[in-house]
Amino acid sequence: MEIKDKILEIFPVEDLELLKVDLTGKDNIIITIAKKTGRIQLSDCEKASKKISEIFSDEYFIQVQSPGIGWNIHLPDEVPYFIDEIVKISYKEEDTDKIMHQRFILKGNKEDVIELAREKTGEPVVISVAQIVKIKTDL
Prior knowledge:
This protein has 139 residues and is an alpha+beta fold. It is built from two helices and eight strands; from the N terminus they run αββαββββββ. α2 links the parallel β2 and β3.
């Protein structure tokens, strides 16, 4: 069984979900990116690291971290983990190919659209997934 598969079997750890696993063979480092609904705390990362260390003990250096600012959100699977967080979206205007860059509060997704709210007013905005070039976490 591969390392990634073994880590997948561990998660979820409490309410922490696995987003990504990276391995650096040269330094024997396992980097795990984890997220939960709401804010991730250092103690959440410590719990996950401890669980992973139980399996890989002295073989690897284990690093568990949150996605952080600038994380590329993969649509639609990762949207639920970033609800009510500020995101920066690059998207094509409907009638032109002009790329717009704006900050919104992520509210959810339905079918082929992303539901947002304007950061200052809370006004609802809906953007088609087909229009979105990139969506990232922001401050």
